[in-house]
Amino acid sequence: MYNVSRDTIIRDSQVASAITAIGMTSPEAKSDILSGKTRLSRKYLMELAAGPEDDVAEVAARLEDGTFGSWKASAHAPKGEMASVGSDTEDTPQWERVFGRITDDFNKELWKISKNDDTVAVRKALRLYIGMLEDLYGNI
Predict the structure, then answer these.
(1) Which run of H or E residues covers position 109?
(2) Nearby residues of 125 by Cβ (< 8 Å), 6 or more positions away
(3) Backbone angles phi, psi at 27, to 5 degrees
(4) Of 6, 38, 39, 105, which is least packed with CB atoms within 10 Å of its CB?
(5) 43, 81 Cβ separation under 8 angstroms
(6) pTM of the full predicted structure?
């Protein structure tokens, strides 16, 4: 119906499960994730869903108190994975701060456009943009 594979549905289910589990501990953290205020990678959320419940509770608490960005480099965070983007701490690499600002701006503009314009056209443009990002990622 939505032209996606079975594996995509399974991955999306894992992501949703992690967000729901975070919301059980901290509705505020869940709201921040869903609104785009806090960004967690899909891979990180899938790993979180497969891990111990204690990890979910710790992530939720750190998201709520604003210390998650400093925690991402710990042993609990997936190695090499950008768990949170755009946290402007001294130890945050410059590329991550730049990507965070770009992502924040893009997210704000996308929400403005999607509220006022043809949703189908916005989704089509977004899909093209995602394709360009995937091409860029593949060439790195």
Answers:
(1) helix 94-116
(2) none
(3) -55, -30
(4) 6
(5) yes
(6) 0.49
H/E/C letters for each residue in 3-24?
CCCHHHHHHHHHHHHHHHHHHH
Q: What's the half-sphere exposure (Cβ side, CA atoms, 13 Å) at 64?
A: 15
When pLDDT is averaged across residues 82-93 and rounded to a whole number, the result is 53
Task: State the CB neighbour count (10 A cutoff) for residue 29.
Answer: 23
Alpha-carbon distance 58 to 48, whole Å?
A: 11
How many CB atoms within 10 Å of residue 72? 21
Token pair listed for 115: 């509220």
Helix axes 119-138, 94-116, angle to 10 degrees: 160
* Contact between 77 and 83 (Cβ < 8 Å): yes
In one letter, which amino acid is 67?
T
Q: What DSSP designation does 37 have?
A: S
User: Cβ(57)–Cβ(76) under 8 Å?
Assistant: no
